[in-house]
C-alpha cells in the first residue's frame, strides 16, 4: 500500500512539473508608447503560445533549437521573444500578462508596468552616423516621437538654426527615423525638438554641465549631438 501511495505521489509531482508554467517577462516595464523588446520565459510553453498584455496582443517568436547546443540546454519550450504593444489604455499602470498554451491560460497578474513619457520628447537610444551625408538616416528610440510635433534640428557653430527635417515614426511613437536634409559640409549640433520648445536629452551632457562648473557656455546654450556632414558615413550608435 505504501509503495502504491509513494508511486501515486511521484506521478502527481511529475505531472505538476510537466505543466506549462509562466515565470517572467523581462524587462517588466516600458513607456506607454510600447515597442520594447521582451523575453517571456517559463516551462513547457511549447512553440505556438499566444499572449497579450492587458488585452492588447503581444506577438511572440518561439525560440529555435540550437544545432550546436546540448539537448538539456535548449531554449525551445522555455523562451519566447516579442515586442510589447502600446499601453492598452494609453495611460500608465500595471497590466496582466496572459499566455495561452494549448488552450490553457497562464497569467502574471499585474506583471507589466507602463510608465508615462517623462518629457514632451525623449530619445533614450539613437543611431546617428558621423560623419554623415545628405540623405543619411538617423534613427531614434524613446517616447513621444510624433511626426506632428517633433522634428530634427541642425545648428551651426554659433548655435544658429540652419536646417530642420521631419521624423517618421516606425513603431508607434517609440521609434522613428529621419533623413538628413540638404546641408553644406561641416560640423553641426543636432537635436530633436518638440513644438513646445522641449529638446531631447541625447546624453551628451557632462558632469560639469549638470553641476555648473563648465566654462563651455555654448554646450549649455546649444546641447545635442555633434555631427559631421560630409565624407563617407560610418554608422555609430548611442544610448543613455
Layout of strands and helices, then pairs:
Layout: H1 2-17, E1 21-26, E2 29-31, E3 37-43, E4 50-53, E5 56-58, E6 60-62, E7 79-83, E8 93-101, E9 104-115, E10 122-127, E11 137-143, E12 150-155, E13 161-171, E14 175-179, E15 186-194, H2 207-211, H3 217-221, E16 225-229, E17 237-239
Structural description of this entry:
The chain folds into two domains: 21-115, Immunoglobulin-like (Sandwich), CATH 2.60.40; 122-239, Immunoglobulins (Immunoglobulin-like), CATH 2.60.40. 11% of the residues lie in helices and 43% in strands. The strands form three sheets. The protein has an eight-stranded antiparallel beta sheet with strand order 16-15-12-13-14-11-10-17, with no helix packed on it. It has a five-stranded mixed beta sheet with strand order 2-9-8-4-5, with no helix packed on it. Strands 1-3-7-6 form a four-stranded antiparallel beta sheet, with no helix packed on it. It has helices at residues 2-17, 207-211, 217-221; strands spanning 21-26, 29-31, 37-43, 50-53, 56-58, 60-62, 79-83, 93-101, 104-115, 122-127, 137-143, 150-155, 161-171, 175-179, 186-194, 225-229, 237-239. It contains three helices and 17 strands. The model is unreliable at 8-15 and 204-219 (pLDDT under 50). The protein is elongated and about 65 Å long. It is mainly beta and 240 residues long.
Strand composition percent: 35-45%
Query: In CATH, what is the homologous superfamily of the largest domain?
Result: Immunoglobulins
| Structural domain count | 2
CATH topology-level fold name of the largest domain: Immunoglobulin-like
Amino acid at each position: 500500500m505504501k509503495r502504491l501511495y509513494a508511486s501515486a505521489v511521484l506521478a502527481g509531482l511529475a505531472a505538476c512539473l510537466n505543466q506549462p508554467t509562466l515565470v517572467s517577462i523581462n524587462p517588466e516595464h516600458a513607456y506607454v508608447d510600447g515597442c520594447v523588446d521582451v523575453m517571456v520565459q517559463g516551462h513547457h510553453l511549447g512553440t505556438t503560445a499566444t499572449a497579450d498584455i492587458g488585452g492588447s496582443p503581444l506577438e511572440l517568436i518561439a525560440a529555435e533549437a540550437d544545432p550546436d547546443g546540448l539537448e538539456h540546454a535548449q531554449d525551445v519550450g522555455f523562451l519566447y521573444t516579442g515586442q510589447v504593444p502600446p499601453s492598452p489604455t494609453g495611460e500608465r499602470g500595471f497590466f496582466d500578462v496572459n499566455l495561452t498554451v494549448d488552450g490553457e491560460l497562464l497569467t502574471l497578474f499585474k506583471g507589466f508596468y507602463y510608465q508615462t513619457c517623462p518629457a514632451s520628447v525623449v530619445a533614450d537610444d539613437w543611431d546617428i552616423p558621423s560623419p554623415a551625408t545628405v540623405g543619411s538616416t538617423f534613427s531614434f528610440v524613446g517616447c513621444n516621437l510624433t511626426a506632428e510635433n517633433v522634428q530634427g534640428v541642425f545648428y551651426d557653430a554659433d548655435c544658429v538654426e540652419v536646417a530642420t527635417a521631419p521624423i517618421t515614426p516606425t513603431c508607434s511613437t517609440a521609434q522613428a527615423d529621419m533623413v538628413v536634409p540638404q546641408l553644406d559640409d561641416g560640423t553641426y549640433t543636432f537635436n530633436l525638438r518638440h513644438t513646445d520648445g522641449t529638446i531631447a536629452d541625447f546624453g551628451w551632457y557632462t558632469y560639469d554641465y549638470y553641476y555648473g562648473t563648465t566654462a563651455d557656455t555654448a554646450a549649455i546654450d546649444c546641447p545635442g549631438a555633434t555631427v559631421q556632414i560630409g565624407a563617407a558615413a560610418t554608422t555609430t550608435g548611442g544610448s543613455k
